[in-house]
Specification:
207 residues, 3-methyladenine DNA Glycosylase, Chain A, 8% helix, 10-stranded antiparallel sheet
């Protein structure tokens, strides 16, 4: 797996990241924490819900830069959010990492719920503002493919986003995994639908 994985359509990358390994190395102790990505959300450049919707700003600049790097930002005065930059250099796009399954390095505190939210995972892994623009193939962050493929992936509307046109259900979840955040019962099974411009899902599919 190399940087070219991220130099593709953001929605496709978000879907294919589910099941991949993310290793985070402690910046002080150098200890490695191994996790598996179980939930993501896609944000394309023109997406009204994306930071890049109105064009380049100092805050969202990493979204327009070379892919396979982190985009870390602060929200609600209390949470850092970890994103992976996608698309070719100059085209905005990023995938929000919403939940991870802790695998090794966590000790007795390891539970499936330890990293089941974007703010929680950044807090537990010590991800801070200085982690912005870090490479994803070496150093503090390493994304790897160990061949594990989820049997089913579910897709839902993104968390905290209300009415949007066209409808963009770009949240991808490992179906039935205990480490994902809360999922509504009406989540659609991705493997049963076409992965197109908006995944060919109508809002009526979500009662």
């Amino acid at each position: 797996m190399d940087a070219s994985f991220f130099e593709r359509d953001t929605v496709v990358v978000a879907r294919e990241l589910v099941g991949k390994i993310l290793i985070v190395r402690d910046s002080k102790t150098k200890k490695k924490y191994k996790t598996r990505i179980v939930e993501t959300e896609a944000y394309r450049g023109e997406d009204p819900a994306s930071h890049s919707a109105r064009g380049w700003t100092k805050r969202c600049a990493p979204m327009f830069e070379e892919p396979a790097r982190t985009y870390v930002y602060f929200i609600y005065g209390m949470y850092q959010m970890l994103n992976f930059v996608t698309e070719p250099d100059g085209i905005a796009g990023a995938v929000l990492i919403r939940a991870l399954d802790p695998l090794t390095g966590f000790g007795a505190e390891k539970t499936h719920k330890l990293l089941n939210g974007p703010g929680k995972l950044c807090r537990e892994l010590g991800i801070v503002a200085d982690d912005n623009r870090k490479p994803l193939m070496k150093g503090r962050f390493q994304v790897q493919d160990d061949g594990v493929v989820p049997e089913l992936i579910r897709v839902t509307p993104r968390v905290g986003i209300r009415e949007e046109k066209p409808f963009r259900p770009w949240r991808f979840i490992w179906a039935g995994h205990p480490a994902v955040s809360k999922v509504k019962e009406n989540a659609v099974i991705l493997d049963e639908i076409f992965l197109g411009e908006t995944l060919s899902i109508k809002k009526a599919d979500f009662p």
